[in-house]
Design brief:
- It contains 12 helices and 9 strands.
- The longest helix has 17 residues, at 25-41.
- The chain has an 8-stranded parallel beta barrel with strand order 1-2-3-4-5-6-7-9, surrounded by 8 helices.
- The chain is α/β, with parallel strands linked by helices.
- The chain is globular.
Length: 343
Amino acid sequence: MSVKKLSDIKYSVLDLATVVQGGTPADSFKRSLEVAQLAEKNGYTRYWFAEHHNMVSVASSATSVLIGYVAGGTSKIRVGSGGIMLPNHAPLVVAEQFGTLESLYPGRIDLGLGRAPGTDQLTALAIRGENFNAVHNFPKDIIRLQTYFSAENAGSKVRAIPGEGLDIPIWILGSSTDSAKVAAAMGLPYAFASHFAPTYFMEAIKIYRDNFRPSAQLKEPYVMACVNVVAADSDYEAEYLATSVKQLFIGVVTGKRQLLPPPVKSMDNIWSIYEEEAVMQMLAYSFIGSGETVKNKLTSFIEQTGVNEIMTTSHIYDHQSRMYSLKLFAEIIKSAAYAPLNQ
């Protein structure tokens, strides 16, 4: 693992089109576009949406539709999936959808792939129908996708039109070591969901790097870590804003999901000791604080992990505070190249 500096890394955004209390999915979509436009102006590399289903606070279920919406409202930033959950889709349909997106917005589309359904089992059954019990082979489906995208598939009886012959980068997403092995064996870039599943992060990226086989798409291992970021003018304000995501994650722990709530002055009367421990474990890779605080924590994280790219996700209730956090994070990265961050 090469030692990297904060100024060496790329930085990106993961969006779940989070619905806040008092808001609607329509509001979330409009805000997502505004965030993406600001991200583009501030040097972010890519803007990804995550596919989830049957979650009241997550409106990014029709992932490819939102990718097209945001790509159409921006001009340079890469837009993609973090990820498309392959068990829910036929590879041919994914190839056609992303072939369409790449045809509309050439050179700007990413296809991140996950091996889980992105939902509970009952909802997965509703999505997959009679295919629910069919054998699902993640690596084979990835190979099918690569085949559909290849120019060599022109002679096949089944073709992806559009999609065939297009250069659409494929990423492997994961929250365990299994996906690391797949990404390494196939020579594909690897994005880890450390923003909610930190337990196997260090082990997974080591397995990925140790077993990486160069491919036509990628010559050396490339690791992206997704982390939670809440940046503000002071540590106190950032911690206050972060109570929203903590409340949201209580719903993940208990199964009682809710829309993203407003921040509170204290969490003491909101969570139990068990819930607090579970939530804070899930949020282990979170960067919350002033610009200087976040910069110091992030610098240590980069030196420890050697990741190539940071993908930020920010569950912040107030839209303007979320926008400001995104802008401040970009300034943190940029400032690392030349001087200490001005407070």
